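Model it.
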Amino acid sequence: MPQMAPISWFLLFIVFSGTLLVFNFLNYYSFLPSSPMTNYQQSIEQKPLNWKW
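Modeled.
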């Protein structure tokens, strides 16, 4: 069975690591989350808490 030179293993590692990084960056930045609706946040009513001891 032929042996691979250490530089070939290093080059293979660099190629696979670069592929993994590019794949993760593309997946992370391809998703655009929708911005939260400001009307929904303003419509939340808060009841005042009047503590009577």
